[in-house]
Write a structure and sequence with these properties.
With 180 residues, this protein is mostly helical. It is built from eight helices and no strands. It has a domain of 93 residues: Cytochrome Bc1 Complex, Chain D, domain 2.
Length: 180
């Protein structure tokens, strides 16, 4: 029995060593144009969904109404559209160069099948190794909820909100420091 346990420990150590060598020697694909590592997508999605289920809020503190949608649409245009796009607009150069490709949230199903709490969780903390930043330090809690509620209802927005989403995105640039 002792030899068996020793064999299992050595086997596990060899697997960890092989994985380390794979990454440490630069054999792992890291460019956005490279093929995905086997099981990469499946494992990433499993981890993301398991964490969301534990941490995403289940109650929404805002009403899903035109004012919330309008505010959310403006936030979306300023902070999200550069990657996720606007309705009937071509994908930006930034989005074209990302891996994984950012989903087009305003076309097709988007995130309308996600709860606002799930979207809020993603907007707040971001998603590692996807290019999706967390906005917990740059948007207020209310702003994060506004864009999350708007996205959860993107398939049933009033025409006035849809109209506000047409035209070019207006990304917000960080303030410059004139003393540098």
């Amino acid at each position: 029995m002792g030899k068996f346990i020793f064999g299992v420990i050595v086997g596990i150590a060899v697997v960890f060593a092989a994985v380390y060598v794979y990454f440490a020697t630069g054999m792992a694909p890291v460019a956005t144009s490279a093929q995905a590592v086997p099981f990469e997508k499946m494992l990433a999605h499993k981890a993301l969904h398991a964490r969301e289920e534990k941490e995403a809020p289940t109650t929404v503190p805002l009403t899903a109404d035109e004012a919330t949608y309008t505010a959310g649409a403006q936030i979306y245009k300023e902070h999200c559209a550069v990657c996720h796009g606007l309705p009937a607009q071509p994908q930006s150069a930034i989005a074209q160069g990302m891996y994984p490709k950012p989903p087009k949230l305003m076309e097709g199903k988007g995130v309308t099948d996600d709860s606002p709490g799930e979207t809020y969780w993603k907007v707040t903390g971001g998603i590692r190794m996807t290019g999706m930043p967390g906005f917990d330090k740059t948007l207020s809690t209310t702003q994060r909820w506004q864009v999350s509620v708007m996205l959860a209802n993107a398939d049933k927005l009033p025409q006035s909100v849809k109209d506000s989403l047409s035209g070019p995105a207006t990304p917000t640039m960080p303030p410059t420091n004139p003393t540098k």
